[in-house]
Amino acid sequence: xxxxxxxxxxxxxxxxxxxxxxxxxxxxxxxxxxxxxxxxxxxxxxxxxxxxxxxxxxxxxxxxxxxxxxxxxxxxxxxxxxxxxxxxxxxxxxxxxxxxxxxxxxxxxxxxxxxxxxxxxxxxxxxxxxxxxxxxxxxxxxxxxxxxxxxxxxxxxxxxxxxxxxxxxxxxxxxxxxxxxxxxxxxxxxxxxxxxxx
Length: 198
What we know:
By secondary structure, the protein is of the alpha+beta class. It has one domain. Helix content is 28%, strand content 31%.
């Protein structure tokens, strides 16, 4: 069976922790360290073993991957949250908090066929799709419609109302008939306890 699991966590101060990241990061930001700790925790929950970062590398587009393509993962972060997905099929995710998309940006991301959808959702879905393709912001968002994305991939898009703000999450993944998916919010204490037991 095909599966993708996603964990989301609110960012917290990790300055007192020595968190390991893959060697291809020379000077990682704290949000990158936290994202890879979340990936390690997610991997442990799914496979009951510690993820060895030596199995990770970057592809030709500099997207972090499992070198043997046995599994797929994707990471996203916004101002306050980090999301990490792990599964056995290709995927791309994006997480965004409610914010104003300026008209100049909207003109760069909106396709003429993108109607009845908010600018932040357009950005959220198209960024997840570009990460699914493995090309990130190299994709010309205005040339791709949301309907085309829905034809090319399976799309899950959710809006969560947290602390009086909307948070948007989108996941694009391979066209497969059945998928087990789980999106779960994780408390920081769970991740801290996991880190202390590594």
